[in-house]
Design brief:
Beta-Lactamase, alpha+beta, 143 residues, 42% helix, five-stranded antiparallel beta sheet, 4 helices, disordered C terminus
């Protein structure tokens, strides 16, 4: 179950964050997203140690915590997508598919002529599309 997704700009500025759990967990999820930025930066700066090359957008499992697993995806423009899930057995193929769909939704949102690049994404259509993508993979909100 996906409990949180985030889009983080190339300067580590939060562009979008949506959690799919109770409000009590929101602060903890914000902290997990923030901590994952260090792992992403380490993988980008040390590609030989982490496995994926800079040409590969899918960063895979960034790190597991006691209750969550955190996955990352990096675009060519250095925008980072982060997903936090409670599932212990998630297939990489499913996560890749999720990130491809999430990336497509992001591209559509920032292609809007009224969107200011580098600013938070406030589009309700984007939020609804992200919610439907998350629901198609299962979310904590549906249980």
């Amino acid at each position: 179950m996906i409990v949180c997704v985030a889009v983080v700009g190339h300067q580590n500025n939060p562009l979008y964050l949506q959690s799919f759990t109770e409000a009590d967990d929101a602060l903890k999820l914000h902290h997990i997203i923030h901590c994952s930025l260090d792992v992403i930066d380490e993988r980008i700066n040390n590609p030989k140690k982490s496995g994926p090359t800079l040409n590969e957008a899918f960063l895979g499992l960034l790190y597991p915590t006691e209750n969550y697993k955190v996955y990352g995806y990096l675009t060519n423009t250095k925008v980072k997508f982060i997903m936090v899930t409670t599932d212990l057995d998630v297939k990489d193929a499913d996560v890749r598919t999720f990130f491809r769909r999430f990336h497509a939704a992001y591209v559509d949102a920032v292609s809007n002529p009224f969107h200011v690049p580098g600013k938070k994404i406030t589009s309700k259509a984007f939020a609804q599309r992200v919610s439907s993508i998350v629901k198609s993979f299962g979310s904590a909100a549906t249980t």
